[in-house]
Design brief:
This protein has about 220 residues and is α+β, with helices and mostly antiparallel strands. It contains nine helices and four strands.
Length: about 220
């Protein structure tokens, strides 16, 4: 089977996992191009094609260009409607989109904020314990909501893996490497059973790779 297009991304990146997983379940091939951060995305050829110069980015065999991981993954899923990745109806597809947006903004957004805080990415390498606590509490609220919605359900939208499940698994894997240590994970058995079910699916297990979860949440670096 000929590839549907070329993808620039990093295998460990959650967004790249969305896309490759969608392609695998859809029975489609995507050509993952070699990528070196700070080199490939600064080359004139790359910037000319993708002016935002970030990954993941995609170019179809017909020249169609797209960026943003969830958008690329959704496009890939739409090429194989029989895969069930977008559900089985227009309403299913809307619910898939709902959970994708929820995962990205109501869970992963807070993971990224905590990581940036503890790594002191903000001006003057500032760190605020109060902000850290407030951000984590918002993530907790979202995780409790997800936990409730996964009660007695194997998958979040239908009775099989959809793109929403893939995105949720990617986001949860990332959170469990940053904000959710062993004690925090124990509070969300449904969430982590769902993660194991999706990430352990034989079709995408190798794409998700090892969990690499932290035992305790990441902590701020000490001042030098």
């Amino acid at each position: 089977m000929a590839p549907i297009g070329s993808l620039w991304g990093v295998p460990r990146q959650r967004q790249t996992k969305y896309i490759l997983s969608a392609a695998a379940i859809a029975g489609l091939e995507v050509d993952l191009k070699p990528f070196e951060f700070g080199v490939t995305n600064k080359s004139p050829e790359f910037v000319d094609k993708f002016p935002f110069a970030k990954i993941p980015t995609f170019e179809g065999e017909d020249g169609f260009v797209l960026l943003e991981g969830a958008s690329i993954a959704r496009y890939v899923a739409s090429l194989a409607p029989e895969s069930g990745l977008l559900g089985n109806s227009i309403k299913d597809a809307a619910v898939v989109d709902q959970w994708i947006h929820f995962a990205e903004h109501e869970i992963n957004g807070y993971t990224d904020l905590v990581w940036q805080l503890v790594e002191r990415f903000f001006p003057e390498k500032a760190y605020s314990e109060n902000i850290h606590k407030a951000v984590f509490e918002r993530q907790e609220r979202s995780l409790k909501f997800l936990e409730q919605n996964l009660n007695l359900r194997e998958f979040i939208v239908t009775d099989e893996i959809t793109l929403a499940d893939i995105v949720l698994a990617g986001v949860i894997q990332r959170a469990a490497r940053v904000t959710l240590g062993a004690a925090e994970r124990a509070l969300y058995p449904n969430v982590f059973s769902h993660y194991a079910r999706v990430a352990g699916d034989p079709r995408i297990k190798d794409i998700f790779g090892d969990a690499d979860f932290v035992e305790v949440p990441v902590a701020p670096k000490k001042d030098e």
